[in-house]
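WARN retry 2 of 3 for item q-0093 after timeout on previous attempt; input resubmitted unchanged.
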Amino acid sequence: MAELLVIRHGQAAFGQANYDVLSDLGHRQSAAAGAWLREMGWVPDRLVTGTLERQRDTLKAMGFDGTAEEHPGLNEYDFADLLRARFKGDVPDLVKGDRKTHFRTLRETVFEWQKDAFDDAAETWGEFTARVEAARSFATDTDARRVLVVSSGGVIGQLVAASLGAPAQQMMQLNLQIKNSAMTRFQFSGSLFSLSEFNATPHFASPERADLMSYS
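OK item q-0093 returned
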């Protein structure tokens, strides 16, 4: 069986004008993930990211050689657009600026999105799940034995939920657990695709790296 190792991007710039950049911590998390994989002798023979800068920069900081392929199906859903659609363009300041309020509200909003509650969202739930599946098919249509993918929490949550045949809401329950630069591992062969590890952070499992942990 071949392996698909999906890494969530490092910490991004929450609350900043441009969220799609890594923070200093995000760069260090990504470098630690790459270093740990090399220490374990796990070197990918195919690299794939979405088209977001925080995904590309995570892979760059991981330090592997090779040219990465890109697939837009690995991009995160547009949470800012979903909040805009829910609040008719007037998102409360507390939702935008307070982490706890933001993620609690986002969880509720995604549940509504899954029920097609928003007529003017840029992407429907069905379109999101279809592009994630297209990205999975793209990444696993290969002779490579070790495929490294860098994506985002919502996509990873959906990959895991779909692989388990879980209800739609489970995607968001998983999404909110996923740590920055965490590793989720699948095995694949032909039409077979199964989860073998979720949300692992062995690269933080030492006293000198424990402070690298973050969720958003």
